[in-house]
Every structure is written in C-alpha cells, then in structure tokens.
Amino acid sequence: MLARPGGESIGCDDYLGSDKVVDKCGVCGGDNTGCQVVSGVFKHALTSLGYHRVVEIPQGATKINITEMHKSNNYLALRSRSGRSIINGNWAIDRPGKYEGGGTMFTYKRPNEISSTAGESFLAEGPTNEILDVYMIHQQPNPGVHYEYVIMGTNAISPQVPPHRRPGEPFNGQLGTEGRGQEEREEKERNEEKESLRGETPEIFTSESAQTFPVRHPDRFSSHRPDNLVPPAPQPPRRSRDYNWKQLGTTDCSTTCGKGAQYPIFRCVHRNTHEEVPESYCDSSMKPSPEEEPCNIFPCPAFWDIGEWSECSKTCGLGMQHRQVLCRQVYANRSLTVQPYRCQHLEKPETTSTCQLKICSEWQIRTDWTSCSVPCGVGQRTRDVKCVSNIGDVVDDEECNMKLRPNDIENCDMGPCAKSWFLTEWSERCSAECGAGVRTRSVVCMTNHVSSLPLEGCGNNRPAEATPCDNGPCTGKVEWFAGSWSQCSIECGTGTQQREVICVRKNADTFEVLDPYECSFLEKPPNQQSCHLKPCGAKWFNTEWSMCSKTCQGGFRVREVRCLSDDMTLSNLCDPQLKPEERESCNPQDCVPEVDENCKDRYYNCNVVVQARLCVYNYYKTACCASCTRVASRLAGFLGSR
C-alpha cells in the first residue's frame, strides 16, 4: 500500500484511498482463505551418510522456502520426480545462485561468512509444474530443516498429517483439476463463438469456496518470446479471404550456444501480393500459436566453475582455505559437470590458498626458572609465562594457543636427602662439685643438605650426650646428695627442671644411701627449680667428620656446620667467628705399595720393557712384575698429587 503526499493511500487495486492489500495467497483484498500454507520441520536423527529425503513439494506450490535451521556441513539437494537433478545432484556441490527447475526459478543460498550461523536455503516464487523432492546430503547431525510452501485452494492439501506418518515427515498433496475441466467444458458449450481462451489464465474452483482463485501454470514460451507475439485484444471480426497469416522469419535465438529457443513470427499479409497489412485484416482466431524451436544446439565451451573460499583453517596466523573448482558446460539452460579434460585449454584456478585473518598473540617467557623449593628431594620451580599481543601488550591467555603454552611450573629433583648427627660442644661445668659427675652436650639427627661427600643416615649409633667428670674426693659426712638437674622443660626462655635429692654418707670409694630423716637436721636442697638456659638465640651444630677422600698422599674430609635456634630450626644469629671448620686435610703420608714376594723380575732387561711401555700387556706385566709395579705406583702418586 502506497502513501500519497496528501496522506491518502493507494490500495493494491490502484484506487486512491483504498485500504486493500495483497494477502498471503497473492489475492488483492483477500482474507487468506484462498490458499493453504504447508509448513513443518524435518528433525529426523539420521545415521547413514548420503542423500535422505526431507519433503515433497507438490505441483502448483508457490512461495517455496526450504531453510536449514543452523549452519552445518550438510547440503540441501533438489531433484524432479522424473529423476533430473536440479541442485547438488550426483555428489557434486553446486555454487550458490539461480537454478531453473519444475517450471520456476530456485535461488540457492549458502552463507559463507565466518560469523554467520545461518544454514543453506532454497527459495522460489513458483508455481511448480511438477512434483519436486528436497533431499539432505547427510554428513553430520541434522540441525533441522524448516520447509514452507503455499498451495492455492483451501482443499488443495489436507491440513492434517495422516496418522501413519512421523512428525516432521512431509505429506503429499495434489492440486485437483476436475473443477477446472468441468468449467472449461461448460464455458465452451455456452459460447463457441467467443475468442479462444488460449493464453488466458484458467480458473480453479473448490467445493468449499465460491470464490475463484487464478492459478498461474508454467509458461508455454520462454522469457525470450517477443512482445509482438502476445495475442492482441479481441477485435471486431473482419472475415476476408484476401488476407491470411504468414510466417515472416523467427525471433533471435535465446542463447548463442548450448541449445536455446526461438519462435516463428506470424504477420497478416495479402494472400496474393504477400504485402504485410495491419493484423486487424486477418482473423485473430486463426493466427497460429508460435511453437518453440530449438536453436544453437551445439554445446557451449567448457569453463572452470569456481566455488567460494571456505573459512580460514585458523582464526589467527597463517592458515589454509579451500574452494571447489569444477569443469562445467552449459546445455539446455542447465550447467552440467563434465570431465576435467574438457577444460584443459584453460588454466585451472587454484583450489587452496593461504589465509591470515589476523596476527596471533604469542607466548613469552618473562623470567628464568626459580630455585627449587626444597634443598633436597623432589620439589618444584616456577617461571613467569605471559600471552603477549603483536604490539607487546599482555593479554588474556585465551588470546594465545593454549596447546602451545610453555610450562610455568615443573618438578625439580635435588637428589636424595641424607641424614647426620649434629652435636654441640661439651658443657664446661661438671654436674658435681666434688666426686664423680657428668658433662653434657646436645645431639640431634637432621637432614644433610650441603655435604660434598655422600653421608649415610643417622642410624642407631647415636653419639653420647654425657661424659664422666670428677672434681676430686668429697669429705666423709652425711649430707644431702642432689642429682643432676633434668633438661629444662623449654629450649630457651624460662622453664622448669627436676632432680633427685637423697641423704647419703660418703665413704672412701662408695656412697651409702641413708633414710631421709638422717639428714633432717640439714636443709634439704630443692628438687625443682626454674631454669633459663639462654635467651632464645642460636648456636653452632656440626656433624662428625666424613671419611678421608684419600688413604695416602694427602686428602680431605668434610663435615656440615649449621646455625640452629633453640627450636632446632636454621638461624643466622650465630657468631661467625665461632663457626667450626667444615673441611680439613687428612692422611698426608706417602703411599707405600704392598710388597708381594712373588712379584719379581724374571727378564734380565726389564728396564727396556718399561721404557717401551709394554707393561700394559699381561705377559710383560708378569715377566717384569717388580719393575712394572714400581712404575705404576709412581704414576699413581703423580696423578694423585695433581
């Protein structure tokens, strides 16, 4: 409906101020009852690859729309009931475009944009002049195919799907012709003298509607039919035997090759002179109908039909894209796929090409590996890995290829953890002021991390924590004897410690334990006291010396020294000047070979054997045993001193 400048609109009947519009059946001012809309969705789960029928498009269908509901790797195909392939037949995929079939023109669309999710589609205005079948070339799960078309006449197709059909399966419907034939016969009987109805639009009646609905049948002539061949409007008949219709040539061929069509041109001429006169001089009912004649039936030259490029195989960086290149020939208004050798006179276009949508971001290692998280055994180490764009900015990891991401954490093995006994120095004071007492030291088993020589585990040979001491004899008398204080209850700070207090009489070499009342006249020493070993600090601990690296001519041995706090954790609060040595020399004496009485020179000139370096052979090593042994000892001593 068009709007006029004055505000009034023009309806589809071309009357100013009319509000009539064309309904979905194509009828101006209609109420959508003159046609039947058939639609559905094909959702069947398909298992086998290949062609599967989707829906049948009946004869006379208009407004045809077959559309995939989502983009997929499947293809739609179209063929006639006679077996002629129209689109995507015989496993050959056609390019998107326009294809003639079933008396109408189908538009084949296949969106190829990367961002598009739309599927393939067939669109046609119709009407069709034969039954057509829509197929799916199944290659991946069916996303669903929506189909819709319009059939003129309310009783053309039953709106109900027969019970034996599954949902989504198309049903057949044929446009009836009985009403049309009856009407034409009655019309002919009523008016045989009227002009021929050839070329006019026949009408179809249905039993459910009194209205008539024009149905456009397939054109009998191609689009190249000349305008002057359209039958003129009925004229008053001028019957004359002096004039008749005569063919005066033909129209131009519709194509230059590949089988076109042309039509004869009829003119009204004088019967005797053959001079062309106005058509009104001839009987229009006697004018011959122009029949289509084939022309230029030789095939067109073959050509390379180039398909669209596929999506790039990579979203960034260098990828590949492909396209289909087929050798085709046009014949009878159809493009046919032929053998490639027919296009050998033409250079074949490339079927693959490189592509790059954008430059990829890349992984960058920003730092070196950190130190291992443990000094011995298996730990972990880390490094900084970032995704960096092509302009140097740090971006989200998703911008880079996660499959190529370098590791930013890995295990590290620092070797097995050895254990050793760590000892303090002996205490300076004896536990007893007179007589026998003890001096003590601390002993702890800890993991060894820095020794350059292999050390075994602590084992069961725990070093002694106490050693005897004697500050001289005590005078014989009765007295309280106090034992040594137990260890302080805490390592540092203020704690408590206990000791045993007994009444004794000391003789010359022995102690005699008495009942406590014997010492009751004496003040009993306390058996518990507070203790404060030291402020919570640290002191040096060291392991035993390792074995000497050599048995003679000077070697070395090592031990590990650590600064430990009172809770036996590593500390750096010890006085560096008091740190015990960690390495010292050992076994400085010369190496003396063992004397073997059976090792003698049995050859009178063994010095020549030595000079010739023949001692490496078993024969000479035995014959000149003493000389070869001396040389070997000197060589070993020389190498050991290096």
UniProtKB/TrEMBL annotation:
GO terms for cellular component: microfibril. One of its GO terms (biological process) is microfibril assembly. Coiled coil: none annotated. Residues 158-244 are annotated as: Disordered. It holds the Pfam family TSP1_ADAMTS. Residues 180-201, 216-227 have a biased composition (Basic and acidic residues). It is found in: Secreted, Extracellular space, Extracellular matrix. It comes from the Eukaryota. Residues 595-632 form the PLAC domain. InterPro entries: ADAMTS_ADAMTS-like, ADAMTS_spacer1, PLAC, TSP1_rpt, TSP1_rpt_sf. Its main location: secreted. SUPFAM superfamilies: TSP-1 type 1 repeat (SSF82895). GO terms for molecular function: metalloendopeptidase activity. Keywords: Extracellular matrix, Hydrolase, Repeat, Secreted, Signal. Promotes FBN1 matrix assembly. Attenuates TGFB signaling, possibly by accelerating the sequestration of large latent complexes of TGFB or active TGFB by FBN1 microfibril assembly, thereby negatively regulating the expression of TGFB regulatory targets, such as POSTN. This is Thrombospondin type-1 domain-containing protein 4.
